[in-house]
Amino acid sequence: MMSQRRGIHLDQSELLCKKGCGFYGNTAWQGLCSKCWREENQREKQKQIQEDWALAERLQREEEEAYANRQQRTQSQPSITPFSKFEERKTKEKSSKVNTVTKFFIPSAKTPPKKDGGPFDTQSSPSPSSSVGRHSSVDSDHATREFIDFLKPLKSGREIFKQCRAFTESMVYKRDMGADELSECVQDFYQNLSERLQTQFKGSSDHVENIMDEVEKYMMTRLYKEVFCPETTDDEKKDLAIQKRIRALHWVTIEMLCVPVDEEIPEVSDSVVKAITDVIEMDSKRVPKDKLACITRCSKHIFNAIKVSKKEAASADDFLPTLIYIVLKANPPRLQSNIQYITRFCNPSRLMTGEDGYYFTNLCCAVAFIEKLDGQSLNLSSEEFELYMSGQASPHWPQATGASSCSPGNTALSQVHKRLDLLTGLGERQERVMEKARQLESDLIDWTDEVEQKVQTVLESFPPETEKASATTAGETSAAPSAIDSENVENELLPPPLQPQVFAG
């Protein structure tokens, strides 16, 4: 029975980091948490740097040996001096390329010159034209004022502001870097600043988290257009792919996903609408923390809808299918870009622990499930699944006795399917009527031709009798008027009869 099937199941251990550190993992990090991912990435990068160094040193030695050999040949053959100058210039270019190997992995130290003003100098240094409009935008200015007001009571507030401002300005000159490199720079800054704050505010981790939240809000508001869905990534392509995928899955219903939600209950229906609104609203936020807050509110509305429908607390097996159903109904804009943006630039401690990290990990799992959804997951055959995905057929759902099957959403969907089937039947009937009309038209044309041929045959068979009858009829008709006319003439010519006269006595 479909109602007894639990096709979507996710063990809680699958949400945790694969290395067993106890933090939440992420599909974008191959199931690792941000800490383990950074450590793994650092090890790979250090290994790559060492290999590049070894390669650079070997190339350098080979170039030096080749240059020394050329110099010896040049001294013995002065006539090839121009070629030796060319080789020397080539060697210098090669040396400069070798030196850039180490610079590739070192963050750029170029920062625009700064003027030391008041305690919180908000004047930005010269920057490219594309960033001038961004830094002068209303949102950026508002975030800067709020950040300054937050830091004023702190003794080290001026230093924190200067570091954050310098870092955001330096990021403008790294726009050509890949998204992973930009993420690494931001995450390094978060980690270094957090460690310094923990040293300064010992025993006050909540205070440090509050400061880091404000730092994230200030920096990401200013860098949003720079780092959200950058051109160096395929985030936009992934957005279009998942959006098209969700549209193709419009026929998936509550019964298929085993969602324990009864939308006939007004409170449940209201919670579902709020959950859809929250996950759509995520795209309108600029700060990763605010985007996570939308996901958290959406998840809480889901838990409330399940609790009211089942009249008991929801479990993880109930939550994930319902979240998938909400995502399918909402089809949030730029879903993959928002997930990648949160993954790359959110405060790592927020993703590793707490309810925000838990709900975000479930959202990533829901998106991964939608991308890999097949007929087996929905208790359908592969042929039926392909027909429904291509739009060549629509499923017919029986009216079950469960609460969820009687919901207004399911009833409306059933009516849509019935009307689609009715339209299909009407279309077939219209085709049959048109075919019969075309056949009737052909029969009428044939009958008309047949009658014309018969009439022509009859006319050709009796031509003399027809002409004589016509002539006789014409003579009789002309003679009658002549007789009448002569009689009238005689009457007019003869005098009127005499009438007896009576004389009076």
Question: Would you write up a description of this structure?
Answer:
This protein has 505 residues and is mostly helical. Among the domains are: 27-70; 138-227, Serum Albumin, Chain A, Domain 1, CATH 1.10.246.120; 235-390, VPS9 domain (Glutathione S-transferase Yfyf (Class Pi), Chain A, domain 2, Up-down Bundle), CATH 1.20.1050. The chain contains 18 helices and no strands. Helix 4 runs antiparallel to helix 7, helix 8 packs across helix 13 (335-345) and helix 11 crosses helix 15 (354-371). It is extended and about 125 Å long. This is Rab5 GDP/GTP exchange factor-like.
Enumerate the spans where pLDDT stays under 50 for 5 or more consecutive residues: 1-6, 79-83, 100-105, 107-117, 124-136, 397-406, 477-484, 500-505
- The CATH topology of the domain at 235-390 comes to Glutathione S-transferase Yfyf (Class Pi), Chain A, domain 2
Radius of gyration: 45 Å
CATH class designation of the domain at 235-390: Mainly Alpha
What level of helicity do the residues show? 55-70%
The average pLDDT is 78
